[in-house]
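Internal ticket - ligand job 376, pyridoxal-5'-phosphate:
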Amino acid sequence: MNHDDRGLATRLVHGRGPNPLGAVATPVFDTASFAMADMAAHRRTVEAPSVHDYYSRVHNPTVAALESTLASIESAPRALAFTSGMAAITTAMLALGRRGGHFIASDQLFVNSREWLAHDLPDFGCEVTFVDLTNLKALDAAFRPATRAVFFEEFTNPLLDVLDIEAIVAIAHDHDALAVVDNTFATPVLFRPLELGADIVIHSATKYLAGHGRVLAGALAGSGPVMDSIALLRRRLGTIITPHNAAAVIEGLSTLELRVDRASATALRLAELADAHGATSTVNYPGLPGAPGHELAYRLTGGHRFGGMLSFTLRRPARKAVVYDAFTQFVRATSLGDVVSLVDSVEDPDVLRLSVGVESPDDLLTDLEKALNAAL
Ligand SMILES: Cc1ncc(COP(=O)(O)O)c(C=O)c1O
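stdout (structure tokens):
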């Protein structure tokens, strides 16, 4: 564990450490390679290539500043940054699954993660079992001698189910497997899975961590030899983030807690509005006291804030397109965790998903009410 006991907001701003040149904003080292002072320096980079700067597919000071912040906010000894969330997920699983590994995966996953696990990983010699992870007995029964890890999202995309991280971690560890959590929806502001015993946390940093919707980025934090194995594969696959995008994520991270606070407060009001509205049959938001995952989410988050993601099912699913088209403030776009509020028509034909941004809450409430009225 990383023993930085400063508050999260301080670590978000200062986790990157002081810049050796005194620059207050992190400089962008837009360079492919670094000059070697002499043969001794060359030898040092060959011996410990991920410590010394010599080539930006391996290491770069801007990327290192981002990774230092990520490690600090995740309470991890080490973090790695990637070109996208999918690059983090695929690189990690290829590293963990080497030579015939088996994975247990949540049956509720972001569509590309699910398809990667279901269709691609088996072609690389790995086996995958999908399990409803709210059923801990089913989880326990799914382990095999070759099981390397249990992979799940908290909260799940797009239905916002809440899984019992601590129970899943305990079962995974009983079977000598790792617990790998995609914490994109919850962010380190709501809770930090490594502090709950998980081994690896992953984010699509494209989303809340960056927050401005300007770059694709991925992040992963953890400890132990597995991190060396993932770093080595990242170097071979070339899935490291670019220095430019690393600087963009650093900039976004500094306001993460402010943004998640604001989005959480507005999302709760929006969820209450949707819940009371005659056009919806189900509203998925862990902050609603009646939500099935509320008690668990309350325990995980401390009850102050439940994030900016919600989704709902319409009583008349045939009206989905009309509702989607009726939004004027929420922007119709995929992705999430942006300062701009987004409405997404997810795979499920009955469900619309909202990612709440930082606009004036009343404008978003008016927009949602108007859109839902269109479904009556
Ligand atoms: C939960 C979750 N994990 C991973 C990803 C993939 O991230 P990226 O789009 O940065 O590759 C996404 C993207 O939407 C996501 O929602």
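Auto-summary: The pocket of pyridoxal-5'-phosphate is lined by residues 84-86, 110, 113, 153, 157, 182, 184, 204, 206, 216, 218 (CB under 6 Å). Residues 331 and 342 are 5 Å apart (CA to CA).
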